[in-house]
Amino acid sequence: MPMNVPVLTFGSTVVTWVELALGMAGLALILLFTLTILLFRARREQAIAEATSAERAREMDDKVAELARIHAEMTGRMQTMAEVFGSRQSDFVRLLSERMDGMQHRLGQGLEASTKQQSENLSKLNERLAVIDVAQKNLTDLTGEIVGLRDILANKQTRGAYGQGRMEAIVRDGLPSDAFAFQHTLSNRTRPDCVVWLPGDERGLVIDAKFPLESFTQFRDASGDEARTRAAARIRGDMLTHVKDIAEKYFIPGETQDVALMFVPAESIYADLAEYFDDVVQKAHRAHIVIVSPSLLALAIQVMQGLVRDARIREEARVIQTEVRKLLDDVERLSTRVSKLDTHFRQAQEDVAQIKTSTDKIEKRGRRIETLEFDKGESAEGPDLLQTQGRSLRAVE
């Protein structure tokens, strides 16, 4: 068969047997080359794998040898530690025993201290319970007193006596007995609850303890605005009427002060007056009437007490000045008499000195006479000297 006979036709391209054979041969060469490369790569990878395995085996042998060495070292160390533990076991037991004894001792002391503290706490707790019992009893008594106080305030007469008693207690605690009087009768036959006299002023300060409390009770218990308004109007009316009565009864020129005190027996009522009825308070002030609560009355009494104390101090100071003046006169007379006595003492001292001089001369003269050692000059002067000494002795006597 001719080699140039067409075998395949692709469009305008004609493939002959020669071309087909050459193509197959080239394809076989390419496959052979590819297979050779794959075999080379496989062998190289196998060699690399064998080298890696050998390296790993070598590393494994080194690690096994290192583990063997470490095992030997650990065995030696364990033996050494066993020997050390064996040699120190007695010390450890002794130390453990000492520690256990110390812990038991401290535990015993701690239990003893804890028991003592618990006993003290129980005793304190019993004391506090006793105090609580006393406080509870006092609270019960106070509750009964509050109930009694409510009963007292419910009655108008007893309520007035309560306010009077509280005012009297404040005045009596702060002032001396001669500085005030309760239910004192004035020249117009009125009897205010209390009159206080200040030092240097014969006019008395009137304190009135009566107070309209029913309207305030209605004002607090009012449930609606209308009831509250009616109660407020009643309060204003009662207060202004009471202010007018005080101004008409207790302001007497020359006998009472031109200012009077209206005592409110409760701080809460005074607070309600100051908060809701400032107009009533201002009208009372314009009428020279000061509304005071128990604390304000106590403050005013303290001020009066200071005035009374200052007046008494001034009186006592005058008495002291008089006594000091008399004392100075006595001291002056004593100084004069001491001066005279000093003069007498100086004169006596001079006389004694002269007597001593004469005595010395007489003693010397006696000694000379005893030893016969005087001369003519001395013998001539002897009578005159004796006469002079005799006159001196007579003057001293």
What does this structure look like?
This protein has 397 residues and is α/β, with parallel strands linked by helices. Among the domains are: 155-292, Trna Endonuclease, Chain: A, domain 1; 323-396. Helices cover 78% and strands 8% of the residues. It has helices at 17-154, 156-174, 214-221, 225-250, 267-276, 278-286, 294-371, 376-396, and strands spanning 6-10, 13-16, 180-182, 194-197, 204-208, 256-263, 289-292. The chain has a five-stranded mixed sheet, with helices on both faces. Strand 1 and strand 2 (13-16) form a beta hairpin. The radius of gyration is 66 Å and the shape is flat.
Write the layout of secondary structure elements.
Layout: E1 6-10, E2 13-16, H1 17-154, H2 156-174, E3 180-182, E4 194-197, E5 204-208, H3 214-221, H4 225-250, E6 256-263, H5 267-276, H6 278-286, E7 289-292, H7 294-371, H8 376-396
Helix pairs in contact: 2-7, 3-4, 7-8
